[in-house]
Design a protein that fits this description.
This protein has helices at about 5-30, 40-45, 130-140, 150-155; strands at about 35, 50-60, 65-70, 70-75, 80-90, 100-105, 115-120. The protein is of the alpha+beta class. A five-stranded mixed barrel has the order 2-4-5-7-6.
Length: about 160
């Protein structure tokens, strides 16, 4: 074997090992990767039942209903589209209509989003960066309006 052949064999083997490692890593992470959508993106893409997602927006006023026990139904909106959400469990203390929220769960076969976790804003000026970005993209959040300090800091990498 010549020197050039050995070098090419070594490079080929290294690329094969790297490809195998990358493939195994992606295979292992396939169930833990969760995509974030705003309600309008959710409506456009119409994900298949069982798909795990995060949806962020505002809790639409007048849609919050307690169905009994610890089961709740409400809609998350960006003022253009609404996503109906069903959640069983304890809601965060600061969860209420008209406030920012991020729900994580899966799309049900009936089209209702079944959330297994609900995140609410933590004070009067905070909104999750993903929700603020989605609202800006939809034109709901105007740049002239005061952006919450913690969300602005999070976008610049500053944590307060």
């Amino acid at each position: 074997m010549t020197r050039k052949t050995r070098r090419l064999t070594l490079i080929g083997a290294a690329l094969a090992v790297f490809g195998l490692a990358t493939g195994l890593s992606l295979f292992a992470l396939r169930d833990t990767i969760v995509f974030f959508y705003g309600p309008s993106e959710y409506a456009e893409k119409a994900p298949q039942p069982g798909t795990r997602l995060r949806i962020g927006g505002l809790v639409k006023a007048g849609t919050f209903v307690k169905e009994g026990g610890q089961t709740y139904r409400f809609a998350v909106t960006d003022t253009k589209h609404d996503v109906e959400v069903s959640y069983s469990g304890l809601l965060p203390d600061l969860f209420r209509e008209g406030q920012g929220a991020v729900v994580e769960g899966a799309v049900g076969s009936d089209g209702i989003f079944r959330a297994d976790s609900v995140l609410a804003k933590h004070d009067e000026r905070y909104m999750p960066r993903e929700v603020a970005d989605a609202l800006k993209k939809q034109g709901v959040w105007k740049e002239g309006e005061a952006m919450p300090e913690t969300a602005a800091g999070a976008q610049k990498g500053v944590v307060k």
